[in-house]
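Journal club prep — side note

Before the paper discussion, L.F. wants everyone to see what a predicted structure for a comparable chain looks like in token form. Sequence:
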Amino acid sequence: MQIGMIGLGRMGSNMARRLAQGGHECVVWDRSPGTVASAVGFGARGASTLAELTRSLKSPRAIWIMVPAAAVDALIGELCPLLARGDVLIDGGNSNYQDDIRRAAELSGAGIHYLDVGTSGGVLGLEEGYCLMIGGEPETVARVEPVFASLAPGGRLPAGAVAGRAAGLAAAGLGYLHCGPHGAGHFVKMVHNGIEYGLMAAYAEGLNLLAHADAGLKTAQADAETAPLANPRFYQYQLDIAAIAELWRHGSIVASRLLDLTAAALARDARLAGFAGRVADSGEGRWTVQAAIDVGVPANVLSAALYARFDSRGRGEFADKVLSAMRLGFGGHLEQSG
């Protein structure tokens, strides 16, 4: 089918390429002319303006937006005067699901349909496909289902597919699912990313413990301010962390794509010297924890993983200074260097 793609960043460009490879007519636009030219090189049709993109698509149009969440509302504002009743806008970025509910209501007044599609797969999606979590009206989802099927790992519609079957297990088994009404797609993707935070933190903490399993081989400082290592003989292992990460990829219950990426990074540089360790969070982890608070369910691991990211960026430094100030005040304890 014909599809417009707006936003040709790391994921948008690869998604347009996968759609073109799947036989879809893909019309693309990006604020960077160079990325549009690159897309033309793999078979997409380029547009120099949003107006040209909309003119190039037959009505009713289907347009996929793949831009940062903060830019979606402004982009929709630019697009709306160029659209007509029956057109479909698809937000495949990481928007807040509450914004999706609002946008869908606003657009419905003009007869424009809206789908929110949580998209997972990153830079690996071009070859391996994307996991798609879809929110919106069943009829609208059915119209665009061939696009979802091509982007997903299965690369095809389910056997015997009929309109409206994107909500079934057959579609889920191929990598896409109509999760529910407006906002449901990004709600599921939000929780997906919250889980990702927790999984990443678990790998990072476990590997860090392995990296410090040689503590008993090091000369410990002996003073009143430093708790001694009680049994140095129990911590005298100099472990090959890169090899252990690779080992766990084969037959272990903790094997995963995240571990694959970790093992590859450690194989390139076992000390990860190219990283400062300041871990960003793009919003989904915060929204997940907020949702857990709103509905009153425990999310201990996901919350701790989010706070660890804050700490990695030095946001806990003042709290640490307060602790040192209190220790100095009540016991005369001086900070230790190193």
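L.F.'s comment for the group: The beta strands are 2-6, 25-29, 45-46, 62-65, 88-91, 113-120, 131-135, 176-180. Keep this in mind when we get to the figures.
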